[in-house]
Write a structure and sequence with these properties.
The chain is of the alpha+beta class. It is built from eight helices and 19 strands. Strands 1, 4, 5, 6, 7, 8, 9 and 10 form an eight-stranded mixed sheet that branches. It holds the Pfam family mRNA_cap_C.
Length: 381
């Protein structure tokens, strides 16, 4: 077990400053909306097996980390500063580090008006070593140039050539600088979509961090703010989940026999309602959360507010909705999210569960996916 993902480092920007940054980023993105701009994948359905045969996609593992955007900008004195942006659109000021510009031979110039997409992970090794890393998997803006309409392979090519390559050279020239950085920065590994046997047999079993599936990203697709139908997330059946808002209902009634009549039994398990997001502020009950008495005791033992939090759940073999567990057995609350999944997202997840695309299905289609790729890329044969 790899343990929980890291927490976001840095100093949380106050409301006024964060608001200024949100408008600044929206202007750079040429958007009217100031909400979190990150792309969100859709759940893998059986029809997507044919999609992989007919269109070019890249394959990577789905890291169980913390999704963040890294905003590179300047401070009041034109100094280099960086902020991590979480799903809630909060901004976290990062301890100073240098991200050298590729056009400067001295590597002292830095990137600004830049927005990188990625995830924070803690890699844990058998010798007990832990290394925090920011895995970059996309670039939305680079030095003021909006890249969202460029194809995915060109965007990650920019990351490798203009961000990672000069950074590695700078760290080779200044090895002491590596020690003070809050985390390493690397480009996330991308494979051909047919490299599924190697992914399942070699890569996933040897990952130093948590993993809960695969991601297929369209090679020629633009960067899509919000839900992107060209980013496909595949999860094994036991990992497919929905984020609900948990609402506590009534407790069972019991009669203590004192003549006062039935009263609520606050030691028993109450109604646990799983509510789904329909529109702004409109939450409706979808299902009951099933917990055992021991699980309820563990939940109470957290000594935390339970009502109103976002909780990650899956459908058990029994057909009940159950919560995903942290290593200590308590529920996985998604406090990094303001809202539960939208009802449309939930429907797609349920369809993905019903479609039941398995690891074996993916492996069996790898040859057809490869043949399709080779036909479209005869220069590689």
């Amino acid at each position: 077990m790899h343990g929980p993902p890291p927490t976001i480092p840095g100093l949380l920007a106050d409301g006024g400053l964060a608001g200024d940054f949100r408008h600044e980023v929206a202007e750079l993105l040429q958007r009217k909306h100031t909400g979190f701009p990150g792309a969100q994948p859709v759940s893998f359905e059986r029809a997507h097996l044919q999609t992989l045969c007919q269109e070019d996609y890249f394959l990577c593992e789905k890291t169980d980390g913390i999704r963040c955007l890294l905003y590179c900008t300047v401070g009041d004195d034109q100094e280099e500063i960086h902020y991590l942006i979480d799903r809630k659109n909060n901004y976290y000021y990062q301890d100073p580090f240098h991200l050298p510009h590729q056009a400067d031979p001295t590597l002292m110039k830095f990137h600004k008006e830049t927005l990188l997409d990625g995830e924070l992970v803690t890699d844990r090794y058998k010798d007990g070593t832990e290394v925090k890393r920011f895995l970059i998997f996309d670039c939305i803006i680079l030095d003021g140039e909006l890249l969202s309409k460029k194809p995915f392979d060109k965007r990650i090519g920019r990351v490798q050539a203009y961000v990672i390559k000069p950074l590695n050279q700078y760290l080779r020239n200044n090895p002491e600088a590596k020690k003070s950085r809050p985390y390493e920065m690397v480009l996330k590994d991308m494979d051909k979509p047919y490299a599924l046997d190697e992914m399942f047999s070699k890569k996933l079993p040897n990952l130093p961090h948590g993993n809960d599936g695969l991601v297929f990203t369209c090679k020629n697709g633009p960067y899509q703010f919000g839900t992107d139908d060209q980013i496909l997330k595949w999860k094994p059946a036991n990992e497919n989940s929905v984020d609900f808002k948990l609402q506590l209902g009534a407790f069972p009634m019991w009669d203590p026999g004192d003549g006062a009549g039935p009263v609520e039994d606050y030691d028993a398990v109450p109604e646990l309602n799983l509510c789904i997001h329909h529109s702004n502020g409109d939450y409706r009950k979808f299902a009951d959360l099933f917990v055992t008495d021991d699980e309820w005791e563990a939940m109470k033992g957290m000594n935390q507010q339970l009502d109103g939090r976002i909780i990650e759940c899956y459908v058990a073999d029994s057909g009940h909705w159950r919560f995903k567990k942290e290593p200590d057995g308590t529920p996985r609350f998604r406090d990094d999210k303001n809202d539960a999944n939208h009802v449309s997202v939930m429907r797609k997840v349920i369809k993905s569960i019903e479609d039941g695309v398995t690891e074996q299905d993916l492996r069996e289609h790898s040859l057809m996916i490869r043949e399709g790729w080779k036909k479209r890329h005869p220069e590689e044969t």
